[in-house]
Design goal:
The chain is mainly beta. The protein is built from 4 helices and 15 strands. Bound molecules: calcium ion (2 copies). One calcium ion binds next to loops.
Length: 307
């Protein structure tokens, strides 16, 4: 079975991370909605800690940060430049290139607009090389995803992963940075993944760089290749979780390359697993008001309910 579920499979398209920091909100000094807030401001940006989603400004949101008040742990991943200058990522890029799988790192600030809905077919992608230079023999699971790109080039995403015609996981993410020019782009993301198999509490903090081109006619994402490296871990690694990526990507400093030839851009009614409502689609735990004024939700069983 082609499987890479818990770390990479749950991340949309390879284009959106599963977690990461907030970004892209309008700059407002202090805390706009709190009266007399505690002025403690760890990272010295425009938001006080009490209303800053990422207190230390390292690019990992507080709830996804092993040390929310220490920017040295797991490191500064708040910008593409910071991710590129991280030692583990720099080594991963260098070794991936030496293995014949170079990953492009665009830094232009006029990337294509990736907003829309996408389908990555089950087993459409692969992991051709990793820290030990062998094919893991596993492919990406399928994914349906929603991408919202903000004006300052951050991406918010939601996705349902599937395999064997069943949905198997969902994710909601924000804080992925997109850079590029024309039709080519690179995304820079940071992720906390949690493996729950065999009652594991193992957490992996990783950063990823993924590049691709957008087909001007179809809007499809083509020739996608990315590298992801593990920068910190927490909890106890069970055998089941280690087996996911042959026990390598679960350890600090290890990396893997992923590739997908085509991720199709679709209209929402073409989606099978996300909850489609009017002209939009949602994943479990999301709620919204539909065009008829009804209160809707996408259930944990991936069912649309409006009342
Ligand atoms: Ca702050
Ligand atoms: Ca943080």
């Amino acid at each position: 079975m082609n499987y890479s579920v818990w770390l990479l499979g749950v991340c949309t398209l390879g284009l959106v991370a599963c977690g990461g920091s907030g970004g892209g909100s309008d700059p407002v000094a202090g805390c706009p909605n709190i009266e007399n807030p505690d002025p403690t401001n760890t990272d010295g940006d425009l938001l006080f800690d009490v209303c800053d989603p990422d207190d230390d400004g390292d690019g990992f949101n507080d709830e996804n940060d092993p040390a929310p008040l220490d920017p040295a742990i797991p490191g500064d991943f708040s910008t593409p430049e910071a991710i590129l200058s991280n030692d583990a990522m720099a080594l991963a890029l260098q070794e991936a290139e030496a293995a014949g799988y170079p990953v492009v790192t665009e830094l232009g600030v006029n990337p294509p607009d990736l907003s829309g809905y996408y389908i990555r077919e089950d087993a459409a992608g692969s992991f051709p090389v990793n820290s030990s230079s062998f094919d893991q023999g596993r492919g990406w699971v399928g994914a349906e995803s929603r991408v919202e790109q903000t004006s300052n080039n951050f991406i918010k995403g939601a996705a349902v992963s599937f395999t064997s015609f069943e949905p198997i996981s969902f994710s909601i993410s924000e804080g992925t940075i997109v850079r590029g020019d024309g039709n080519s782009y690179t995304t820079y993301s940071r992720t906390k993944g949690t493996c729950t198999e065999e009652n594991s509490d193992y957490e992996i903090f990783s950063v990823s760089i993924t590049s691709a081109t957008v087909n001007e006619t179809t809007g499809d994402i083509e020739s996608l290749r990315g590298v992801s490296t593990t920068v910190d871990v927490a909890g106890e690694l069970t055998t089941a979780c280690a087996d996911r990526t042959t026990g390598l990507r679960e350890l600090v400093g290890n990396w893997s390359v992923s590739e997908v030839s085509v991720v199709r851009k679709v209209i929402p009614t073409a989606l099978s697993y996300m909850c489609v409502s009017d002209d939009d689609a949602y994943v479990p735990t999301e709620t919204w008001i539909n065009n008829d004024g009804l209160s809707c939700s996408c259930t944990l069983e991936y069912q649309l309910v409006c009342e």
